[in-house]
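WARN retry 2 of 3 for item q-0093 after timeout on previous attempt; input resubmitted unchanged.
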Amino acid sequence: MDKITKRIPNSKEILDKAFSRAKKKQITYKKKQITIEFIKKKNLEKIQIASVVINNECEKILQNFPKINQINAFEKGLIDILANADKLKKALYRVCFAQKLNKKLYFQAKEKIQNARNKKDIDFARKAYYGRISSAINKLNKVFLYIEESRNIINKLPEIKQRFTLVICGFPNTGKSTLMSILSGSKPKIMSYAFTTQKLLFGTIDDKIQIIDTPGILDNIDSKNKCIQQSKLAITTIADLIFFIFDFSKNCQYSITDQLKLKKSIEKIISKSKKIVVCINKIDLIKLTNEKKSKIMHLIKNRKFYISAKKNINIDKLRKFLAKKMAETYKIF
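OK item q-0093 returned
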C-alpha cells in the first residue's frame, strides 16, 4: 500500500488558504470603470478562487487515501483494528459531502451576485458564501484531525508483498522471536503502530519468504485486544504456513495443557488449506528420551520439528522444509 505523503490540513488551514488567495486577487482599474458589472466580476472571481481552493483541498484528501475496498484483506484488517476502517470511510464521506456542499454554495452565491442590483447585495452574497462554507468546514475540524491520525497509522503499516508467508505463534518467551531472527539471519523489523503499544515483527528469508512473529499473548483468540486481533488477522489472512512453538522446558511459565489449548484454538479459526507445523523448542534444556517423544507424538499429531533456536539445533531442517513448502505453494522450482 502506497504511503500518504501529504499531511492532512485542519479546518483553519484550509479556510486561511482559500480566503487569503481570494483576497490577493486584485484587478487593476480606473475610477471610471467602477460599475456594478465590474463589482460583480470582482466578487465572482473572489468566491470562485475560494471555492476552487476548498474543492482542491478536499479532493487531495480523497484521492491520496487508498480505497478501503481495493486493498488486500490483511491491510484492510490492520486499518480496521488500528484506525477503525468504517469510521475512516465515514470521515472521508463527510469530506466528500463538504466538497459537494461547497460547489452548491458557490453556485448559489454566484447566481445571487449575478442577479444583484447594488453593491450591498453583492457584498452580502459573497459574505454569505464565506460564512456558510466556513461554518461547514469548521464543523469538520475533528474529522480532518482524525483522518490525519489515520494517515500516520497507515504510513506505519508494513509493506506486505505477494510472497510465501510464514506466521510464527505461541505463548510469550517460547523462543518465537529468536527463531525468527535465526531464520531471517538478522534482527526482525519492529512495526509499532499508533493507538497501541503492541507490535508485530516482520522479517524475510533471502527476500523470498515473509515471516511474521505474532505477539505472544494469544491466550484468548477471541479477545478484543488489538494485539491479539492483529495476530489473528495475520494467521487467518496471509499465512501460507503456521509454526506453533512449544516450550516443554522447566523454565516455561505455561503448562503443556495451556499450550495445547492455545494451538487448538488457532486450529479452529484457520481454513483447512492452512497447515500448522509444530516446533518443539529449547530441546537443549530438556532430556528428549524416546519415552518423552512417544508422549509428544500422542499429544501432538501435527508435523513436528525438535529444535533449539538459541543453539541452532535442527534449524537447517526447518529452512529446507520452508523452501519445499514455498516451492509447493507457488510452484517456482
